[in-house]
Design goal:
There is one protein chain. This protein has a 22-stranded antiparallel beta barrel. A three-stranded antiparallel beta sheet has the order 2-1-5, with no helix packed on it. It has a two-stranded antiparallel ribbon with strand order 3-4. Strand 27 (about 540-560) and strand 28 (about 565-575) form a beta hairpin. With about 700 residues, it is mainly beta.
Length: about 700
């Protein structure tokens, strides 16, 4: 880890010096505040940013701005540069900044949101889905335009060297000129784990480039992922955590790393290479524009029509390794590959999208933009297979799918009062023929009692073909070929935001028909002495009826002098808790004081936050496929009602942010202990630290 850290810092500093020499004569002025972002800026939690706190060039220089892109058309969405002190202590929490995720305990371990409206549709290579803490898509990549080379180095650490966790992140961006820029970022997470056989080693790297011309625009990124995770199947008995004195028989209680686990010598390794390019050619004209309080007239290019092309290439491999034959026979119901320890599945896809857009705002009659597009996707899946009667002999079996889709978009982004975006797409030919989606969102902004009020609405109708691995999966322990119906999902959601009151309220409802999920199909065995045991198995199910989910979230923050209290309360209700279990209440509260010292150069934030959700039948985790599924109905039990309390101190000194956090202050045993997933305890009380540096030259 230290060698990787040193090498990365050296590369970044060398790149920084070279880039500085390239452009130091071109850009040299800094200003007093952020620029280039729209007026509605939000932090990583979706809360409005107080831009008045950005008071000098040591925070964000003028000319530094960042954005993300939409994958289909390459549209840009501004995002704030990450210099926030508030919430910094939670940026390395696998449970999420406000504790919305259930996970296996270790840093970077698989996770799933227990807030249903935050769950995403399964991807075609769904083995990445539980790792969205580190895994990124092209739409997650941050592009930066900067007048001076920008570098960020961030390092997190918790625990000792033998059982601790570390994470190193580096980001570098530079401009060749005001139109062309490039950069890279890396993210290396290494969690040794407090419990046996649960280590994580997650590497993600990304290269990006962009060009913003009047007529030609381009964004490119290349992402590499290598995710290696040891699987332990959970601890053998929850009482090692819930009732440690009983398990120790009155002796000294077990250390976490001495608690026995169900599996050993088992690994999941996911590797991916992803290339993405979106570009467009604009037809238009130049218009003379005179800025307010300025007599100088300059020409501005006004695009009228755009020809768009996007291409995405994914090459993925999932490797499951399990060496212990005796252990496999005892734990799993099926061992389709016999004593073979290796199980591999591969995925390749290439998707091209072409479109033509009539751009918004080129004259007074063009109040909205209109885009028509067509896409073609080729997918190939290779799975391990066996010959009937000879499970030890394997054949690589390939499944190929092609999909042709057409669609359109109606969008209005300009102006300050009203915006909307409606996009529809339907699969005309191929494996997903008949699949369609219609998605829409809009917002209305107006003044009320000298305050800005935002009303937002989101809705969609989706008729989705279940992804490939729900329909077909051949592996060492699980095997299925399913004829599944399409999934119909309908959702409508609204949100009200009042910045001055620090209030945000959103509520929505969703109806799902043919809900498709992974079910626990473990097989019961009764020994001669009456002891009951279960061997692990899994199956894909579809609920033929409808399931409704209602969700409402209130965020309300309070401030009195230096005292702050941030609150978030989510209420959700599912109509079928057996098929789709959810906690009814999810809470987050953060009480802290915030002040400045040394002539307001050193900013300090100190306090404690609490995460809590009510008890429910939390999803179980299947190590042989790396996915979450329902608990065994014969042995299921509820988890939750555990107050996770973390105390912290945040420091912000010019370009440097530092935090010190005591995690799991309560560390309570008993039935309501620190489990989010059955048999996978969270880390006990532990000290965490983190530091982040920004360099602007």
């Amino acid at each position: 880890m230290k060698k990787i850290l040193f090498a990365a810092i050296l590369i970044l500093l060398c790149g920084n010096l070279v880039a500085q020499n390239m452009i130091q004569n071109q850009y040299s002025q800094y200003g007093t505040s952020a620029s280039g972002l729209n007026s509605n800026q939000y932090d990583r939690n979706g809360n409005p940013i107080d831009t008045t706190s950005v008071i000098d060039a040591n925070t964000i220089p003028i000319g530094l701005h960042a954005w993300k892109i939409e994958e289909r058309f390459g549209e840009r969405t501004p995002v704030p540069v990450d210099t926030l002190m508030h919430g910094f202590q939670n940026t390395n929490d696998t449970g999420g900044p406000t504790g919305h995720y259930s996970f296996l305990g270790n840093l970077g371990a698989p996770r799933i949101s227990h807030v249903f409206f935050e769950r995403k549709d399964p991807s075609q290579f769904f083995f990445y889905d539980p790792y969205d803490f580190t895994v990124r898509k092209p739409s997650d990549i941050i592009y930066t335009n900067t007048k001076s080379p920008f570098t960020n180095l961030t390092y997190y650490k918790q625990g000792d060297g033998r059982y601790g966790e570390e994470r190193f992140k580096a980001y570098f961006a530079v401009n060749v000129n005001k139109r062309l820029g490039f950069g890279f970022d890396i993210d290396y997470t290494y969690g040794r784990g407090k419990y046996q056989n649960q280590s994580t080693a997650l590497f993600n790297g990304n290269l990006f480039a962009y060009y913003h011309g009047d007529q030609y625009e381009m964004h490119f990124n290349f992402i590499n992922e290598n995710l290696k995770v040891a699987e332990n199947g959970g601890i053998t008995d929850d009482r090692y955590v819930t009732n440690p004195l009983e398990m120790a028989e009155g002796e000294r209680t077990y250390e976490t790393y001495n608690i026995p686990t169900n599996l050993a010598d088992v690994w999941n390794n996911n590797t991916g290479y992803h290339a993405f390019l979106t570009h467009r050619y604009n037809l238009g004209f130049y218009r003379d524009v005179t800025q307010e309080n300025d007599t100088v007239t300059k020409q501005v290019f006004v695009p009228v029509t755009s020809f768009i092309h996007s291409v995405k290439v994914d090459v993925d491999r999932r490797k499951y390794v399990s060496y212990d034959v005796s252990q496999n026979n005892d734990y799993f119901e099926h061992n389709y590959l016999g004593a073979d320890s290796l199980d591999v599945t591969r995925h390749f896809s290439i998707k091209n999208t072409v479109g033509i857009a009539l751009r918004e705002g080129f004259n007074k009659w063009a109040k909205a933009g209109l885009t028509a597009f067509m896409s073609f996707e080729h997918r190939s899946f290779t799975m391990t297979d066996t010959i009937t009667g000879n499970p030890r002999q394997r054949i690589a079996t390939a499944h190929k799918e092609n999909v042709l889709s057409i669609g359109g978009q109606l969008i209005k982004q300009q102006g300050k009062t009203f915006h909307y975006n409606v996009t529809g797409e339907i699969a005309m030919l191929g494996e997903d023929a008949g699949q369609f989606t219609v998605e829409g969102n809009g917002d209305l902004n107006f003044r009320l009692f000298n305050d800005t009020v935002r009303l937002e609405a989101n809705a969609y109708i989706k008729n989705l073909n279940p992804t490939f691995y729900f329909r077909h999966f051949h592996s060492k322990h699980y095997w299925w070929d399913n004829d599944l119906s399409k999934i119909m999902r309908t959702r409508i959601e609204g949100k009200l935001s009042i910045d001055h009151w620090r209030t945000q309220l959103k509520a929505g409802v969703e109806n799902i028909t043919n809900y498709t999920y992974l079910d626990n199909a473990s097989v019961k065995y009764t020994a001669e002495n009456g002891d009951v045991s279960y061997k692990n198995d899994m199956a894909v199910r579809q609920h033929s009826g409808s399931i409704q989910v209602f969700s409402a979230t209130l965020r309300q923050d309070f401030k009195l002098g230096i005292l702050h209290l941030d609150n978030e309360v989510t209420y959700q209700k599912t109509s079928n808790a057996d098929v789709l279990p959810l906690p009814e209440l999810v809470l987050y509260h953060n009480l802290y004081i915030k002040f400045a010292l040394a002539k307001k150069v050193l900013n300090i934030e100190m306090g404690a936050d609490l995460r809590y959700f009510t008890q429910y039948y939390a999803p179980d985790y299947a190590p042989a496929i790396g996915q979450f599924y329902l608990q065994n109905r014969d042995t299921r039990y509820k988890l939750g009602a555990y107050p996770m309390i973390n105390g912290y101190i945040n420091l912000h000194l010019k370009r440097t942010r530092i935090f010190v956090q005591m995690y799991n202050l309560l560390q309570r045993d008993g039935d309501k202990s620190y489990f989010y997933i059955p048999h996978y305890p969270l880390n006990p009380r532990i000290l965490k630290i983190g530091i982040s540096w920004n360099f602007f030259d």
